[in-house]
Amino acid sequence: MNLFNRLIVTLLAGILTAAGAFVFGAAYGWPDARALQGLPALLALRAELMELPALWTASGGLAGAFLGLAGLYAELRVPDQKPGMVIQRDKLGTLTVSLAGLRRLAEHVVSDIPGVETVRADARATRDGVAYHCRVVLTPDSSAPDVSEEIRARLGAAVSHHLGRRAARIDVYTQVGQPQNTRKRVR
How far apart are CA 88 and CA 18, in angstroms? Predict the structure, then answer.
């Protein structure tokens, strides 16, 4: 969700919390009528709410306040950060490698291979280690099987060096020439 939507949801959750608290309080005569002298609409609403059965009014107000608080909690809490891939966990602490860093490693290693024009890599943590999916654009004179074998060998060696483990899987998708989803500059 973008920032504007989050602000709207936070505002609505705050209003729901305040309205629920007001309805709950009105069921038991709070706030006092003197406190609402400058707000005739709220004073009239309080009077109507006090005519309803107190149990139902208080229950509805409490439910609204709790729903509002749950919405506020959901919007204002800090989202969990994806830790990446845990390499080692012992009594001294945890060693974690970010998946974005592993993607950059793959793109760096694969881009140095002759015959590769561009590369876009994706890294996923699996139970067996890290799995890569590399989309590679090759020059027209290069051999896809030879280049993909070189990609697997070099990327596998780099992963073993950096992580101390072998890569679980390295998938290579090749195409010759210009990538389909690039934008051309217009002058």
Answer: 47
61 near 53, Cβ under 8 Å?
no
Say what the pTM is.
Answer: 0.54
List the alpha helices (DSSP H) in 98-187: 99-111, 144-163
> pLDDT tens, 8-55?
989 999 998 998 888 888 888 777 777 777 788 877 887 888 888 888
Lookup: tokens for 152 = 């697997």
d(CA 97, CA 83): 8
Cβ atoms of residues 67 and 44 within 8 Å:
no
Cβ neighbours for 27, distance < 8 A, ≥ 6 positions apart: 49, 50, 52, 54, 55, 57, 58, 61
Can you say how many angstroms the Cα of residue 114 is from the centroid of all Cα atoms in its chain? 36
With beta carbons less than 8 A apart as the criterion, state whether 8 and 59 touch: no
Q: How many Cβ atoms from other residues are within 10 Å of residue 151's Cβ?
A: 24
